[in-house]
Amino acid sequence: MKFYFFHLMPYADLDLSYQEKHNSAWVTLPNSYYDPKKGHLLYNRYLDELEYAAEVGFDGVCVNEHHQSAYGLMPTPGVIAGALARRIGPTAKIAVLGRALPLLNNPLVVAEEYAMLDNITGGRLIAGFVRGIGTEYHAWGVNPAESHDRFHEAHDLILRAWTEEGPFAFEGKYYHLNYVNIWPRAYQQPRPPIWIPSQGSRETIEWASHKSRRYTYLQTFSPVAALSRYMGMYKEEAEKQGYTASSDQLGWAVPTYVAESDEVALREAKPHIENLFNKFLHMPLEMLLPPGYLSLASMKGVMQAKTSTTGGPQTMEGLMANGMFLCGSAETVRDQIAHYQKTIGFGNILPMMQFGTLPAECVRKSTEIFAKDVIPKLRHLG
Amino acid sequence: MAEPKHSFETINGCKISLRRAGKGEPLLFLHGAGGGHIWFPFMAALSERYEVFVPEHPGFGPSDTPEWLDTVGDLAFFYLDFMEQFGLRDVHLMGASLGGWTAAEVAVRNTSRLKTVTLVSAAGIYVKGVPMGDMFLWPPEEGIRHVWKDPKWQEKMLSTPQTEEQQDLARRNRLTTAKLAWQPRWYNPQLRKWLHRIDVPTHIVWGDADGLFPAPYAKAYQELIPGSTMTMLSAGHIPQVEQADEFVEAVTSFIGKSAS
After folding, report:
1. How many domains does chain A have?
2. Model pTM?
3. Has the ipTM of the complex gone over 0.90?
4. In this complex, is the C-beta atom of A287 within 8 Å of any C-beta atom belonging to chain B?
5. Would you call the peptide bond into B62 cis, given omega within 30 degrees of 0 as the criterion?
6. Shortest alpha-carbon distance between residue A144 and chain B (Å)
7. What is the CATH number for A52?
8. Chain-chain contact of A28 with B137 (C-beta, under 8 angstroms)
9. With contacts defined as CB-CB under 8 Å, which chain B residues touch A27?
10. 3-state secondary structure of A218
């Protein structure tokens, strides 16, 4: 099994009383809540956390993309990846778990940016492609009803830019280019590995698992029941396509906290994990799910269930019970991961070791214990 | 109140739902984002004087969603085809909100089949410095309060639960609305350049408390369409329903004057 340290870089200094005046930490929360002096310190602290993770033995680090939100401060994740490129190594990978392709006016910016990172790191880039969450379509103005089509067209263009000799012309519905001929080309040939983070949909899984792609599918921030269902679906789809999915085609991103004992871990993590779900993820359903972001059938299901992460207040106990948060001593967390790995069969785990307002000293301790007492014991799995 | 005749009609391969009633000069009503599945009292009242056509746009209600539907301009060409197929002449073209935008797009393209144009709370232009409401971000209750002026209407809407079938329809209509109006939000930057081409009598009807396209949008439309007339009613975004009697009175009187 491989271990990737995942970061969202939230604005942890957010004045959490914002909810008295505003109904969301996204899109409409005035950016006067952001203090650049505190932001400067946070960015550097978070970069230290990512570098430390690579140093103590994680296989790689993951950066992320969200726009106009206190939830994550990496609207351009390539900047963070670039800052890391010469600081971590020599084997640690950098996974950019954006980029939200439908938001782009010209997808070649991502083909170029990823190729640059791949060249600088000598082939240690993992290329993520996402549609972004629903809020991005409010924040960016891009039409959510075009989200799927723009994603596929941008993806096809980037793949061709990496794998076909340029220059060639590209004539799509959304993108029209006379000359596709990127410099630099990708370092990894024929292309960097591609990861597809998702909260789960049959459509995404069918597409990612297709035998011509075999992209690594990442289930993010979901109850373990959903994790199990979607990973099972991926394996079934692969069989239908005539091959057996390998464990490295499956990954799980999950907030994780490890301390000296279960009791200490629970006590230290509780306010911060609850802040993540109740403060940083707070938004109306209309903001999360603009029309067209999901198919009509999926939208209907979500609206009827109304139990998304934007629902009522979450408790740490509730999150742990459904497997959305791993927390405890090294032994507890190790056993949980081993159990889920055995039943579900993923080969990559992406613990998010900073979440919400979790302070630096806790992140460091948890990272250190995880690297020392969890990773070595689970390496052989998967 | 006479029930309209409901049928499905195919125009260039696209099947749409159509309600029609009445006799007289044709009046083609283009519905807004909420859809065209309800035969409102103002339609019934208009059908006493005109032959009223209320199609459900491609992508709305049970109508087809054709591959070619990307913009309101596409919808405008569709309705030019529609009028041609039905052989309609001297049409009183009336559109509300999204349908008002569509009517304006029809009229800048070709007025040869039109006798008058009535734009009700019409989308389609942007007035600098006057932000529109964001209906895509409003939770349902907030939306109702922005769209209706009269608290009695607000309460009525808030206390009428939707059936599952109505919810399915609303989601479908909202999806097509997003497709057509999300970006640029509710307008075509090119439209205002060509509104001067509308050379038939044009009537702008608005609600003074429209929370989606505030009243200055009415004035802007009036200024952009030479010789147009404006009527401001005490209503929110849907004056044809909220002030049905005054609305019918205003539009029939305008059409009457224009015919002479």
Report:
1. 1
2. 0.96
3. yes
4. yes
5. no
6. 7
7. 3.20.20.30
8. yes
9. 137
10. strand
